[in-house]
Amino acid sequence: MSDVVQVDVSLLGRQFTIGTPASEQETLREAVRLLEDKVTTIQSQGKIVETDKIAIMAALNIAHDLLRTKVGEGLEIAEFQRKIRAMSEAADEALRASQQTLF
């Protein structure tokens, strides 16, 4: 189990400290960037000015995109990314082990 780390992020001009497993820091940062992109798009349209409504619309847009995006037989993108990350970590661990054996 990964240690929990505190990550400082900025959303809608506000600072937040979010606890996340150490292995998920980059995924959290990617999520923040995705949310900021959606927020910026909504703000640029100029139809909604209230911060809470912008945040809700951005979250709904992301949820909608996620539900529409499926890979293969119902495998969600997030699950697909987790599996790729796990395979990558296993490969890295195997390479480290083989390098230690060589030296």
TrEMBL record:
<dbReference type="GO" id="GO:0032153">
    <property type="term" value="C:cell division site"/>
</dbReference>
<dbReference type="GO" id="GO:0043093">
    <property type="term" value="P:FtsZ-dependent cytokinesis"/>
</dbReference>
<dbReference type="GO" id="GO:0030428">
    <property type="term" value="C:cell septum"/>
</dbReference>
<dbReference type="Pfam" id="PF05164">
    <property type="entry name" value="ZapA"/>
</dbReference>
<keyword id="KW-0963">Cytoplasm</keyword>
<keyword id="KW-0131">Cell cycle</keyword>
<keyword id="KW-0717">Septation</keyword>
<dbReference type="GO" id="GO:0000917">
    <property type="term" value="P:division septum assembly"/>
</dbReference>
<dbReference type="GO" id="GO:0005829">
    <property type="term" value="C:cytosol"/>
</dbReference>
<keyword id="KW-0132">Cell division</keyword>
<dbReference type="InterPro" id="IPR036192">
    <property type="entry name" value="Cell_div_ZapA-like_sf"/>
</dbReference>
<comment type="function">
    <text>Activator of cell division through the inhibition of FtsZ GTPase activity, therefore promoting FtsZ assembly into bundles of protofilaments necessary for the formation of the division Z ring. It is recruited early at mid-cell but it is not essential for cell division.</text>
</comment>
<dbReference type="InterPro" id="IPR007838">
    <property type="entry name" value="Cell_div_ZapA-like"/>
</dbReference>
<dbReference type="GO" id="GO:0000921">
    <property type="term" value="P:septin ring assembly"/>
</dbReference>
<dbReference type="InterPro" id="IPR042233">
    <property type="entry name" value="Cell_div_ZapA_N"/>
</dbReference>
<protein>
    <recommendedName>
        <fullName>Cell division protein ZapA</fullName>
    </recommendedName>
</protein>
<comment type="subunit">
    <text>Homodimer. Interacts with FtsZ.</text>
</comment>
